[in-house]
Amino acid sequence: GFHPLNIGKLSMKGHEPLFMPCTPKGCVVLLERSGVELRGKNAVVVGRSNIVGMPAALMLMKKDCTVTVVHSRTKDPQRIVREADVIIAAAGSAHMIKKNWVKRGAAIIDVGTNSVPDASKKTGYRLTGDVDFEECSKVAGKITPVPGGVGPMT
Description:
By secondary structure, the chain is an alpha/beta fold. It has helices at 4-11, 22-33, 53-62, 77-82, 133-136, 150-153; strands at 42-46, 66-70, 86-89, 107-110, 114-117, 125-128, 142-143.
């Protein structure tokens, strides 16, 4: 899915790549199968990696979303994310997205997998996402957990 020819075709109107990168494709399929209407929605992708962020942004554009990519150099990311109907978080920053970043009813796909210290665990750490699940689930319309969300699905 990451061959330059495939990514090039993904970015071109009227062309489909031979293979789609699995995690971004899984995110879009999950949104659609969950009943999230994508056409005309404001989508924010948090993270601009070649593996998830950029392909996810391109796939959402092909679904007629208005897409904004937020990254480490974005000024006032909270304001931008707060306007989103759809959020795909793939920044690699534990609990970066807080409740006050999320518009009520937004659909959130958390792709982040971060290890955070946890002395109560045998390993000494636990996995968590880029989204503060406990807080954001109070305002989100739909949200995926970490672990147990996108990882097993893709």
